[in-house]
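User: Modeling request: complex.
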Amino acid sequence: MSKVKKAFFCQKCGTKHAQWQGQCNSCKEWNTLVEEVIEKPAAKGWTAPDKAKALTSQPIPIAAISTNEEARIHCPDQELNRVLGGGLVPGCVTLLGGEPGIGKSTLLLQISLQIPLKILYVSGEESQRQIKLRADRINAKNDHCYVLSETQTQKIFQQINELVPDIVIIDSIQTLQTQYIDSSPGSVSQIKECTAELIQFAKKTHTPVILVGHITKDGNIAGPKVMEHMVDTVLHFEGDRNHIYRILRAQKNRFGSTAEIGIYEMQSSGLRGVNNPSELLLSQNPEHMSGHAIASTMEGMRPLMLEIQALVSTAVYGTPQRSTTGFNAKRLNMLLAVLEKRAGFQLGAKDVFLNITGGISSEDPALDLAVVAAILSSHHDIALPKNTCYAAEIGLSGELRPVPKLDQRIREAEKLGFDAIITANFKQKTLPKTGIHIIMRNKIEEVVYQLFG
Ligand code: TYD
Ligand code: MG
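Assistant: Request completed. Predicted assembly structure:
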């Protein structure tokens, strides 16, 4: 082994520094430099054995490159297909991030058991027995799903060369270790190097690779940001662990749109794709209570009806409480200020609790009107009209602002049996011909008058 070389890596952005310093030169973060031992032997990473389907790269005219869509590997999981833009592209490297316990391992094992191909599922976190126990809970069987418990990339490549799998799954990239770098697993240089080796393997053999990535406290994928640049697709699996619904989103996709989402339900037998999310998320509110409003929102390209619940009560302590689940707390404060200033409601001395049911969180501005309607309904203790939903953004002067894709929202509301939708007034020539009553209003006061007289 040659002389040991050391360098200091920023744990945030991965920039290499020759000596320690308090601030990273590149991302300007403080106290992020960590010393790591690096060694650079001549040959490293994945090397093609004769029997692997390795291809050597040569320049070809762009017109001569064939791109038939059939080449995509369609997953039996419709939600994943949708998020990936139609299936896995040969040679693509996908990174799946998410909070611990959200279901990343479950999702990938489930896919491994459903796709009728030869899959190598490498786990650095669980033993083969643990994976088998998990697989037994999932109702699927694939005799060509191989499980390997290993963390050394060179040993993994050795097994890959013997097995020649159609898809490789790595759970997780933070547990991998390459023998060419001497720092501990999960450090910036290890993650970067292991990702680079796997990408090299994927591109040369046209084998799709799916990596699981841990995320940090603030919701970013642990390790260098550069890893997200290196891979082709970055997916985020999110949701509230205490609820059953999970949303799969593409943050980056070199082979498809990032506007699509997949919705899953966590059951005792694994994850199930949800085709009709709106129907499941709406409670029927059978007793017709106050404080409930339905918002017609868009999550990516899909319309989604969300139920908002609000509770307004007199504050017992000096400072009124404002608490939200699934909705931006700052936005709630802004809406309360608008209600006070423009519509004359004195909510300053009231506690306001707001909840989007089902553990879903949404940033769609179209939620504003439903939030305001739910708050006022609870404030007056008067239930809102039945079978009415809301879709409009509220501006600072209390004006209702139109939201994009209104025709899709209206169609979804009609499909689910709503009678009316309250939205902003806007000049659109071609509103869809629907049986649903479209109520257009300009200002929040008009909506208040309409709802509470
Ligand atoms: P897991 O896939 O281990 O999460 P991650 O890999 O993202 O850390 O998911 C673990 C959770 O999923 C666990 O809390 C239990 C739940 N679960 C089910 O509810 N049903 C199932 O069939 C399985 C396998 C897991
Ligand atoms: Mg896991």
